[in-house]
């Protein structure tokens, strides 16, 4: 099990990393059908001065590339080299999924629904178990980067539970454009972190199989603000707050397509809309049908379905709504 001893020596995955050292250690995931090993690089940077251990992960879903780009930038720019403490970066947790441009593990399971895993379970469950046993114990603070799935574009946001005081504190420091109160999902990585007493921020931004520079910048800037607050960010990095404080979203609802067809979105993700405002059109391919989609509530658009075609019942917009309306639904 990973730990830091009384001499501030970090032992992780069978290796010892001294204060002031950096290392890349591979977590052996499994083997391909060809018996070729698939390994997950774990990038570790340590200060000579003791301090917190920050664990930064992305790619739990292999097709969510924005998170991978955020962590890559943290490493390539040297932001992950702390003034105090330790920063552990894992840009691609689900390497299998990344290789296949797939959300799931090869066994068809969603890695983010099998934590904390089991020693003798499915491939995904075994990997989650090894991760929780061999890496997570040493972390004091966790940041996990995700995107929307299935062509659904998420506005840059931090997700926390409403009753999580530490989460609220650090979400305010991260200061993403939006902070979305959401309950933890059973057997997710976030839930496991909370059960183990780890403070965790979950970042969502963009969509799967897509790289968005604005989303990446939001993730990198927010991480730098957290590092600065912890005293871990080197002075050479300029860390500025955005012009507006994070917008809190307590309740939300999905708008669904009333018809199947081609969808033409008229509003950008993150914008505020009024009830009844024209936000999209659904048409047939033959020029015979045209349906105007209007906002069902006044609120912020926090997710947009960017697929060019939709079926009746598909989720097309995610809107924030007042608490009173949420209770009435």
Automatic annotation (TrEMBL):
- One function term, GO molecular function aspect: hydrolase activity, acting on ester bonds
One Pfam entry for this protein is AstE_AspA_cat
The Succinylglutamate desuccinylase/Aspartoacylase catalytic domain sits at: 50-229
CDD domains from the UniProt entry = M14_ASTE_ASPA-like
Q: Which cofactor does it need?
A: Zn(2+)
Coiled-coil spans are none
Name of this chain's protein = Succinylglutamate desuccinylase/Aspartoacylase catalytic domain-containing protein
Q: Which organism is it from?
A: Gillisia mitskevichiae
Provide the organism lineage as a comma list. Answer: Bacteria, Pseudomonadati, Bacteroidota, Flavobacteriia, Flavobacteriales
